[in-house]
């Protein structure tokens, strides 16, 4: 751990937050309130000899008697273990916290949506919120589930039921939820066919020249970010700044920087309201407190992201 740095720990933390929220389709409140005790009480599938584990989180968005559940496979469990044994103690230093996920300052996670936006921005990924992921996941699975039993198990997995903590820990419920998670994973991670792979190779070869040009723009953009770092509170560079930096790609740099920051700001503000939809007055007050004078997110876009 001598060479371990805070930014490395943050990458691991943000990655696991993405797993819980975007892959396991859980609400941000699950990440915020997931405890160490709940991690230690993760459950194996009692009916099958596999490596899947079910985790139950009692405090989240929904009513107190309900419990959120998500399933992780062996590889992801190993990442959770690395975080718990290496990263988390590094963040805690001499502090103590009952929460599994903590910030680099050792405190409870404040805004998982912002963490995910930072991760997506850093690695050039498409900006996807928890609401979008859940909506697409539900729509996708509703078209593929053939029985009511499957639908009920999937609904329980997404906390769309009155399943209590006591009922979740029953063996049959654990098996049903792990089966639902496996069904979702197998449906959402299809293996590409040979023909599809060949088509992708051909497209890659045909687009070699274009890719070289895109790689050049990407390199310029990364260099631009080193001069104009992008955070939610950063004052955006002007078009003149971007054109002075690179005349050829000035407009591209300017638009991409602002678009990415705009999305981050939308995610940042919407993260204040994981449990309910805000009023226009509340959003206006928060935006005023931010004192952003440029690249202001619209109330319509913020509400749509909640």
From TrEMBL:
It comes from the Eukaryota. Residues 199-215 have a biased composition (Basic and acidic residues). Residues 185-215 are annotated as: Disordered. One of its GO terms (molecular function) is DNA binding. Residues 185-198 have a biased composition (Polar residues). This is Uncharacterized protein. It comes from Hymenochirus boettgeri (Congo dwarf clawed frog). The lineage of its organism: Eukaryota, Metazoa, Chordata, Craniata, Vertebrata.
